[in-house]
C-alpha cells in the first residue's frame, strides 16, 4: 500500500507494548472490498493471546490510573494531533480495507480524532459531589473512579471512530483497554494503536487483539479482570455478549442496530429534506447504524419529493473509494450485497416499484436504489438494510407517521422535516429514539450523546455523558465529630 509512513501498516497484534503474532502462527487474510485483492494478513489470535492482553492492561492500570488527569489529557491530545498529522495515510488505509470514498475516510479520521480531543478536555472535569447531610455529624461525598480494565469490540463500518469513541473516554477516566477490531478492518485499529504509542501512552494501556471473534469475545466476557465491555455492532451479537457478561457482572454499553425513520411532513422544505436524506441514507454506501432506513412522506408532497430525490440518487457516482469522484463505494462483502438484493426483491414482490438503481455490479458494488409504494409488510420495514436502498412509504396524518416510525424494536436515530414549531415538539417527544434529527440528516458530533433505546442498545458515547460508562460512582460517608 502506498503510505507516506509505511511503518503505520502493522500485521501483528499489540499486547503489552509488543507487536506479536498468534501463538500458533495462524493468520487471516484482509481484502480490499473494491477489488477483492488481499492487502495483507493479521494474526488469528484467540483465548490465550486475549488473556495476555487483559493481563497487560491489568498491569498497566495502577500507574495510568494514578497519573493526574492533566497528564492523561496531554497524552490523549498528542494522540489526537498525531492522527491529524497522519490523516492522509490513515484515510488511505481505511479506504483500502473498508471501501468508503477517500473524502469520507479523511472525514472519519477527523471525526475519530475529535473524540480524543473532546475526552482529553473532559478528563479534567471528572467532578464529584458534596451532598448536604441530614445528620450534622456526617459529611457525604461522591467521587468518580475509573472502572478498571475495559474491553472494546468494534465494527467495520467506522473502523477508527468507533475505537476513538471508546478508547478516548476509557483513557481519560484512567482505565486501560483491550480492543478487538472487526475482522474486516484491523489495519485502521493497529495504526491508531501505533500512534497512541508514539503519543507516549504507556505499554499495556492500549492493546489490540485480532482474530477469532467468538474466542476473543468469550475470553473477555469470562474474565473477572475486565470490568467493562463496550460494544458496537449487530443486535444479536450485542445480546450474546451482554448475556455472556452477566456471569462476571460487567458494566456494558451497547451501540447496536437501527431502523431509522426519516419523515417528511407536507410543510417541510422539500429541497432541504432531499439534501438531508442524501446524507442520512447514502453516507458510507448506506452502511451506518443511523442511516435512514424507512422514508415516510406525507401524501400531498409525496410525488414531488420522490421525483426530486430519485433524480439525485440516479446521479450518484458509484466506484472504488480511491477515485476522486466516487460518492458511493463498494459494500463490505458479498453477504452485504445479498442482503440488499433480498430486500429489493421482496419489496418488488410485494408491490413496490423500483424507481432507479438496484443493479448488482461486479465485485461488491451496487447502484443506489429507490423503491416507491413501500409498505409495512416488506422486509425493508422491519430489518436494517445497511446498504444503498431507499424505500418510500406514504402516510396521511402526523399520528400515522409517528405510529409507523415507532413500529420497530429498534430505537437509535430518527429524522423528520417540518417548519411547524408545535409539530416539532410533538413529534420529537413522541419518537421512541435516542437521537432525533430535526430538519437535519447528520446528528453525530463528539459534543453530543450518541446512543439508542430498545434493541438499539444501552449507554451513550461522546458528550459530557460519554465518560459515565467508564467510571464508578463511589459514596463516602464521613463522621466528623
Ligand atoms: P456485522 O454483522 O456488521 O459484522 P457484528 O455484530 O457481527 O456485525 O460485528 C461487530 C463486531 O463483533 C466485530 O468486531 C465482530 O468481529 C464481533 N463479533 C462477532 N461475533 C462475535 C462473538 N460471538 N463474540 C465476540 N465478538 C463478536
Automatic annotation (TrEMBL):
<dbReference type="InterPro" id="IPR029510">
    <property type="entry name" value="Ald_DH_CS_GLU"/>
</dbReference>
<dbReference type="GO" id="GO:0009450">
    <property type="term" value="P:gamma-aminobutyric acid catabolic process"/>
</dbReference>
<dbReference type="GO" id="GO:0005829">
    <property type="term" value="C:cytosol"/>
</dbReference>
<dbReference type="InterPro" id="IPR050740">
    <property type="entry name" value="Aldehyde_DH_Superfamily"/>
</dbReference>
<dbReference type="Pfam" id="PF00171">
    <property type="entry name" value="Aldedh"/>
</dbReference>
<dbReference type="InterPro" id="IPR016163">
    <property type="entry name" value="Ald_DH_C"/>
</dbReference>
<dbReference type="InterPro" id="IPR016162">
    <property type="entry name" value="Ald_DH_N"/>
</dbReference>
<dbReference type="InterPro" id="IPR016160">
    <property type="entry name" value="Ald_DH_CS_CYS"/>
</dbReference>
<keyword id="KW-0560">Oxidoreductase</keyword>
<dbReference type="InterPro" id="IPR015590">
    <property type="entry name" value="Aldehyde_DH_dom"/>
</dbReference>
<dbReference type="GO" id="GO:0004777">
    <property type="term" value="F:succinate-semialdehyde dehydrogenase (NAD+) activity"/>
</dbReference>
<dbReference type="InterPro" id="IPR010102">
    <property type="entry name" value="Succ_semiAld_DH"/>
</dbReference>
<comment type="similarity">
    <text>Belongs to the aldehyde dehydrogenase family.</text>
</comment>
<protein>
    <submittedName>
        <fullName>NAD-dependent succinate-semialdehyde dehydrogenase</fullName>
    </submittedName>
</protein>
<dbReference type="InterPro" id="IPR016161">
    <property type="entry name" value="Ald_DH/histidinol_DH"/>
</dbReference>
<feature type="active site">
    <location>
        <position position="255"/>
    </location>
</feature>
<feature type="domain" description="Aldehyde dehydrogenase">
    <location>
        <begin position="19"/>
        <end position="475"/>
    </location>
</feature>
Amino acid at each position: 500500500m502506498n503510505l507516506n509512513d509505511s511503518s503505520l501498516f502493522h500485521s501483528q497484534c499489540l499486547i503489552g507494548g509488543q507487536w506479536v503474532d498468534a501463538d500458533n502462527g495462524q493468520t487471516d487474510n484482509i481484502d480490499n472490498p473494491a477489488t477483492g485483492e488481499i492487502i495483507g494478513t493479521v494474526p488469528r489470535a484467540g483465548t490465550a493471546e486475549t488473556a495476555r492482553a487483559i493481563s497487560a492492561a491489568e498491569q498497566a492500570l495502577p500507574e495510568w490510573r494514578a497519573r493526574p488527569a492533566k497528564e492523561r489529557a496531554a497524552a490523549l491530545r498528542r494522540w489526537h494531533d498525531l492522527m491529524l498529522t497522519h490523516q492522509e495515510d490513515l484515510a488511505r488505509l481505511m479506504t483500502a480495507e473498508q471501501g468508503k470514498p477517500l473524502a469520507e475516510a479523511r472525514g472519519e479520521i477527523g471525526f475519530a480524532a475529535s473524540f480524543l480531543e473532546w475526552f482529553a478536555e473532559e478528563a479534567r472535569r471528572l467532578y464529584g459531589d458534596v451532598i448536604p447531610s441530614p445528620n450534622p455529624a456526617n459529611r457525604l461525598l461522591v467521587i468518580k473512579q475509573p472502572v478498571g480494565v475495559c474491553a472494546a469490540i468494534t465494527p467495520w463500518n467506522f473502523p477508527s471512530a468507533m475505537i476513538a469513541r471508546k478508547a478516548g473516554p476509557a483513557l481519560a477516566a484512567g482505565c486501560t483497554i483491550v480492543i478487538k477490531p472487526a475482522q474486516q478492518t484491523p489495519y485502521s485499529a493497529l495504526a491508531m494503536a501505533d500512534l497512541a504509542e508514539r503519543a507516549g501512552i504507556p505499554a499495556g494501556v492500549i492493546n489490540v487483539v485480532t482474530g477469532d471473534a467468538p474466542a476473543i469475545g468469550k475470553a473477555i466476557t469470562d474474565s473477572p479482570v475486565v470490568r467493562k465491555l463496550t460494544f458496537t455492532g449487530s443486535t444479536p451479537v450485542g445480546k450474546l455478549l451482554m448475556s455472556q457478561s452477566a456471569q462476571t457482572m460487567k458494566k456494558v454499553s451497547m451501540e447496536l442496530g437501527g431502523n431509522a425513520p426519516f419523515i417528511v411532513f407536507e410543510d417541510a422544505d422539500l429541497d432541504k429534506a432531499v439534501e438531508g436524506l442524501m446524507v442520512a441514507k447514502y453516507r458510507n454506501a448506506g452502511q451506518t447504524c443511523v442511516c435512514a432506513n424507512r422514508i415516510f412522506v406525507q401524501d400531498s408532497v409525496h410525488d414531488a419529493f420522490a421525483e426530486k430525490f430519485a433524480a439525485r440518487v440516479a446521479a450518484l457516482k458509484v466506484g472504488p473509494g480511491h477515485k476522486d469522484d466516487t460518492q458511493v463505494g463498494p459494500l463490505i462483502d458479498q453477504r452485504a450485497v445479498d442482503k440488499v438484493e433480498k430486500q429489493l426483491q421482496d419489496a418488488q414482490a410485494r408491490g413496490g416499484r423500483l424507481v432507479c438503481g438496484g443493479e448488482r455490479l461486479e465485485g461488491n458494488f451496487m447502484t443506489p436504489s429507490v423503491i416507491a409504494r413501500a409498505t409495512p409488510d416488506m422486509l425493508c420495514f422491519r430489518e436494517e438494510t445497511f446498504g444503498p436502498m431507499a424505500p418510500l412509504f406514504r402516510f396521511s396524518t402526523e399520528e400515522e407517521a409517528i405510529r409507523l416510525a415507532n413500529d420497530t424494536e429498534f430505537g437509535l436515530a430518527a429524522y423528520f422535516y417540518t417548519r411547524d414549531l408545535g409539530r416539532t415538539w410533538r413529534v420529537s417527544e413522541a419518537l421512541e429514539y435516542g437521537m432525533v434529527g430535526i430538519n437535519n440528516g447528520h446528528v453525530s458530533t463528539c459534543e453530543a450523546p450518541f446512543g439508542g433505546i430498545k434493541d438499539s442498545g444501552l449507554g451513550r458515547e461522546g458528550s459530557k455523558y460519554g465518560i459515565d460508562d467508564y467510571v464508578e460512582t463511589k459514596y463516602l460517608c464521613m463522621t466528623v465529630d
